[in-house]
Design brief:
This protein is an alpha+beta fold. The chain contains 16 helices and 16 strands. The chain folds into three domains: 296 residues, no CATH class; 114 residues, no CATH class; 59 residues, Arc Repressor Mutant, subunit A. Strands 1, 5, 6, 7, 10, 11, 12, 13 and 14 form a nine-stranded mixed β-sheet that branches. It starts with a helix and ends with a helix. It binds zinc ion.
Length: 488
């Protein structure tokens, strides 16, 4: 047994997600990414003495929607607390957060792996807080402050509504952690509660990682990994930490509880601070904010707006439609594409062919032209018509491809094109036999080669017959007839 097989990794994920609202959490400043530093600020989000916060109802509704989507409990009573700490990017020296009575409790994230295995990870809680400002640490030498290092602070982000989503330590591989994050991300995106863009910082995540011997009951000492800037780097960072901890334990060392920062360029994590420096945040209820009472009517109203969730769609596509895990995921990861696909299936009642067309030729055309499929000139009704023509063997796949390219240019109904231009497939054996005989007669050398054992020239002959039929011959029939005549 390898060292790796002796241990079970135990992973918990904490995600911070900026909520998509018009204004910040407790003031009327715009909640927008970017802009000139310190232009989206007011006395409330700058923490001026005497300024009073007012909660943003839209952010609270987003929280309830997310909680319901993950099957969490929405307690009737919740409150905001002050988390006290001194840090330069926190203008008030405390952050408004939620301590012991968060807006949602429990729930689970259902996720799936590339091979289609469906798993779930329970959530401890999702709570609501405000984001901090952003500091940029700069060195000396650019002449701003002679000879000294300094930090620049931008408070535009201070006070943006922030959801913190904490998972139970129930994930056991880097691959599962990434699949969990993907499921979380696509759910929040589908709900419209966040942009969940890691590159803009509207989704940030930390991983708690420990390892224990396979037969041990107690958890090992955990470390917290920070600074991952993509799902890929989350996977790499977790994998690297699992290996580091196992190597440490195997060589007789012990894991120290600490926070480690991931260095993407070098593929290693480095110690940032040990547990001894942990803060006592002295939480207490925020006296400026009244507790939140969440009515059951509001909860049910919000539940009614959730729509079909990504994991429900995934189960429909795979279990009901028989589409593979990968194409199903490809479809639902693009919500407008998934809706377009659903409309085709509703008409064609042929999910597999619909998925083939949408993810195959149609996606290729969309990529080549830089236009989303849902915005293209190919309507779901016309694509369903095309699928019906292929299914009925009225046209072969070659003609279908050509028609689709013309539909992309705005040619309209494929049925009308087939009827108007006589494109229907020739399945009449006598007609095809005529084409075959002509081609064999015109290519005696190739026929002789074939009969002498060079069977790879058969493809050329099939191509010639198809050409003679102007692409309309039924390819299966062409193959059968050619084979028979060449044998004979
Ligand atoms: Zn403000």
């Amino acid at each position: 047994m390898s060292a790796r097989e002796k241990y079970v990794p135990v992973i918990g994920i904490e995600c911070h997600v900026e909520l998509k609202t018009a204004t910040k959490m407790f003031c009327g400043c715009p909640n927008e990414f970017g802009g000139e530093p310190n232009t989206k600020v007011c006395p409330v989000c700058l923490g001026m003495p005497g300024a009073l916060p007012v909660p943003n109802a839209a952010a609270i509704e987003h929280m309830i929607a997310a909680g319901l989507a993950f099957g969490a409990d929405i307690p009737a009573f919740s409150k905001f607390d002050r988390k006290n700490y001194f840090y330069p990017d926190m203008p008030k020296d405390y952050q408004i957060s939620q301590y012991d009575m968060p807006l949602t409790q429990g729930g689970e994230v259902r996720y799936w792996l590339d091979d289609g295995t469906i798993k779930s990870c329970r959530l401890t809680r999702i709570h609501l807080e405000e984001d901090t400002g952003k500091s940029t640490h700069a060195g000396s030498g650019d002449g701003r402050i002679a000879g000294s290092a300094y930090s620049l602070i931008d408070f535009n982000r201070a006070g943006v509504p922030l959801m913190e989503c904490v998972s139970e330590p129930e994930i056991h591989s880097a691959q599962d952690a990434v699949a969990y994050l993907e499921a979380l991300r696509r759910t929040l995106l589908a709900l419209g509660v966040s942009d969940v863009k890691m590159e803009e910082g509207s989704l940030r995540c930390d991983a708690n990682v420990s390892v224990r011997l396979a037969d041990a009951k107690e958890l090992g000492t955990k470390t917290e990994i920070k600074n991952m800037n993509s799902f890929r780097s989350v996977g790499r960072a977790i994998e690297s930490e699992i290996e580091r901890q196992i190597a440490l334990l195997e060589s007789g060392g012990r894991v120290v509880q600490e926070t480690r920062g991931w260095d993407e360029a070098n593929g290693v994590s480095v110690s940032m601070r040990s547990k001894e420096e942990a803060h006592d945040y002295r939480y207490f209820p925020d006296p400026d904010l009244v507790p939140l009472e969440i009515s059951r009517e509001d909860v049910e109203r919000i539940r009614g707006t959730l729509g079909e969730l990504p994991w429900q769609r995934y189960e429909r596509y795979t279990a009901e439609y028989g589409i593979g895990p990968k194409p199903a995921t490809q479809l639902l990861d693009n919500l407008s594409l998934a809706r377009y696909f659903d409309r085709i299936v509703a008409i064609s009642a042929n999910p597999q062919q619909s998925a083939n067309f949408v993810l195959g030729d149609l996606s290729r055309l969309a990529n080549e032209n830089g236009i989303a499929i849902a915005d293209s000139k190919v309507s779901p009704e016309h694509l369903a018509e095309l699928i019906a023509l292929v299914e009925a063997k009225t046209i072969n796949s070659k003609i279908a491809k050509e028609l689709l390219a013309r539909m992309w240019e705005g040619a309209g109904s494929p049925k009308a094109l087939v009827e108007g231009e006589g494109l229907a497939q020739t399945s009449d054996p006598a007609a095809i036999e005529g084409f075959v005989d002509d081609v064999l007669a015109a290519n005696p050398g190739v026929v002789a080669d074939y009969r002498a054992g060079k069977t790879n020239v058969g493809g050329f002959l099939v191509g010639q017959v198809m050409k003679a039929s102007r692409g309309k011959a039924d390819p299966a029939l062409v193959n059968a007839l050619l084979a028979r005549k060449l044998q004979g």
